[in-house]
Amino acid sequence: MPESEVQKLCIDLVKIPSITPEDLGCQDLIIEKLKAVGFNCLTLKQRGTINLLALHGQGSPFFLFLGHTDVVPPGDMNAWKYPPFSGTVADGMLFSRGSADMKGSDAAMTLALRDFVRDNPNHHGTVGLLLTSNEEGDAVGGTPFVAEYLKAHQLLPDYCLVGEPSSLKIFGDQIKNGRRGSLTAHIEVLGVQGHVAYPQTCDNAAHHAADLMQALYKKKWDQGSESFPPSSFQVTNLNCGTGAENVVPGSCKIMCNWRFSDELNLEKISAMVSEIISNLKIECKIRYVLNGSPFITKKGTLVEAITSSIEECCGLKPQLSTSGGTSDGRFIAPLGAQTVEFGPLSASIHKANECVNLEDLNKLLVIFKNTLSKIML
Predict the structure, then answer these.
(1) Which of 146, 155, 295, 374 has the largest count of CB atoms under 10 Å?
(2) Catalytic positions, please?
(3) Closest C-alpha to 181, from 302, 286, 333, 285
(4) Which of helix, strand or coil describes residue 357?
(5) How many Å apart are CA 13 and CA 25, to the nearest integer?
(6) Looking at the whole model, is its pTM more than 0.85?
C-alpha cells in the first residue's frame, strides 16, 4: 500500500529525537504545512520551551487542536527491535519513540486543519493548533504559559480536541472526556538523629514516616463521583538516613501523589492530611504541588461530533472515560472549552518498541477532519 501523506509526515516527525523539552525542528515541519494555506503561525518561547500557536480565521466558535512534539527518552536501546528514532515500518506498524504519543496525532491534526482551510477558506470562526515541546516534562513554559497568553489576548477556545492516545484495545473504542486531578506532596517527617545503641536519646523519623504512609494508604479519600472513580494515593519516592548502619535518622522525606475526583481539591486533601498527622502526634514539613485539577466535559456538541465521526469511520461506538494520567487538556479546560482527548492505541506508549498502526493514522485524519467539519460548518 502506498504511503499516505499523514503517514509520511508522522515518519518525518518521529525521525527527529525531540526528547523533552526539545523540539529540534518538529514544529517547523508543521508550520510549513499550515502557512501554505494562510495560517498565522506564532512561535512562543519561554524558559527553554518552544510552543507553536497556529490560527486561521477570527471570532467564535474557536476550535483548537492540542498536542506536543516532545517525547520521553527511549530508555534501554537494546530493548528496541529497531532504532527508536529510525521511523521503521514493519508489518503495517510504525516503530519509533513518539509514534503513538503523539506525533501520529500531530500529523493528523495538522493535515486536518490544512485540508479544512483549503476547502473552506472563508469559514466562520477560528480554527487552530497549539503544540508544545514540554508536555512530557514539567510543562514549564509550555501549555500553561500559552493558556495565559490566550487569556490575555481574549482567544478563548470553545472546543479543544487533544490528540493524546486514548484508544484502549481497538482503535476508536474510547474517548477521554475528562481527567482526574493530580496533587503531589513533598513531606519531610522530623525526628531526632542519634546512635542506634541509645534509642532513648533518639526519635526515629523512619518509624514515624512508616506510620504516616500506612495511614495515608489506608485512608478512604472519597467514594468517587458520577464521572470519576474513587481518588487514589500512592507513595512515589522515599529518602531517609545517612547511609550509616548505626545512625537513627532524624528526618525522612516522602514524595507522594493523589489522583483525585471532582469530590476533592487541594484544600480538602491538605486538611485531611493535617488531621492524620495531628492524630499521629508527629511533626512534619509539607510542600504541595497541584499538577492539575479534575475536569469533565459532559455530552454535548464536541462529544457528539467526535463520537459520530468515530462511528462513521470505525463502525463502533466509543466509550467515554476519565481513567489514566493527566494531559495538557487540564490547562485548556479551565478557559471554558469543551475538552476531549482522542488518538491511537495507548498500549505501547513510553515503552520500548512504541508503535502505531499506519492504517489507524489514515482513519485518525478522517475522524479529525469530520469532527472539525461537523462543528465549524
Answers:
(1) 146
(2) 70, 135
(3) 333
(4) strand
(5) 9
(6) yes
